[in-house]
């Protein structure tokens, strides 16, 4: 095993290619997580509501279900990340294993269902390709080792969170909080930051956006962002220390402003439409993981 790792260390391109193939397969699973996990959460929330409502109040549940993007009644009773098998949403034909191959499967089908010809969103191969490329870059940057493994896990969850937030305006605690605790644990031996910097980073990441949230709400009476955004920034503070937080906030705000203005100018949204901020935090945090020190040093050298 040590000899194999040594070979990969000396041939980072080979390691990157292997990582790309493996991660593209995981990207296919992340598509399932992005689509199904919110439905699973909504079912769980409705079950919790049912526990507190008697038969007379059950009539209140129907309006709630109607407001969901994917009404939970449209899905089979047994519904999780594994069951049922992937199928066409229109004709319900199960997708054959070879059609589920990352990227290649979508190209083989020419972006259409093999049974009924319904268009398949290009988002599926895009996520698979993005996952593969991101982890391949991590492999080339870190090489084989614990840093690469932890960074890969972080990347997988960030991609899932980004997709869910874009679809549902939601950053589930079930994904953000484990990342937060994992970041603190892996930095007990200083993997990415010292334990002290990680703990301060987690607190500072959360409290910085929490303070902005309440200041904005007190001034305008409106909520400018969700609590999930606070937790996601706390995740990056826990993983990479408080020193990376200013860069992450700056990058995410800059990209978010550019994208938001672009959408308004092109009239794809209006000024009153909410825009998920989680994807910009995730992208900025991922960039800081690889190039954060270089960007900071470059900036300081220009002062």
TrEMBL record:
Keywords associated with the record: Cell inner membrane, Cell membrane, Hydrolase, Membrane, Methyltransferase, Multifunctional enzyme, Protease, S-adenosyl-L-methionine, Transferase, Transmembrane, Transmembrane helix
Cited Gene3D superfamilies: 1.20.120.1220
Membrane topology: Multi-pass membrane protein
GO MF annotation list: aspartic-type endopeptidase activity; methyltransferase activity
Catalytic activities: Typically cleaves a -Gly-|-Phe- bond to release an N-terminal, basic peptide of 5-8 residues from type IV prepilin, and then N-methylates the new N-terminal amino group, the methyl donor being S-adenosyl-L-methionine
Listed name of the protein: Prepilin leader peptidase/N-methyltransferase
Gene Ontology CC terms: plasma membrane
Sequence ranges assigned to domain Prepilin type IV endopeptidase peptidase in this UniProt record: 153-261
Family: Belongs to the peptidase A24 family.
BP term (GO), one: signal peptide processing
Domain of life, source organism: Bacteria
The Prepilin peptidase A24 N-terminal domain, residue ranges: 21-142
Organism: Shewanella sediminis (strain HAW-EB3)
Subcellular location field: Cell inner membrane; Cell membrane
Pfam families: A24_N_bact (PF06750), Peptidase_A24 (PF01478)
Transmembrane annotation, as ranges: 12-34, 148-166, 175-192, 198-220, 232-265, 277-300
Main subcellular location of this protein, as a coarse class: membrane
Function (record text): Plays an essential role in type IV pili and type II pseudopili formation by proteolytically removing the leader sequence from substrate proteins and subsequently monomethylating the alpha-amino group of the newly exposed N-terminal phenylalanine.
Keyword Nucleotidyltransferase among UniProt keywords: no
Entry EC number(s): 2.1.1.-, 3.4.23.43
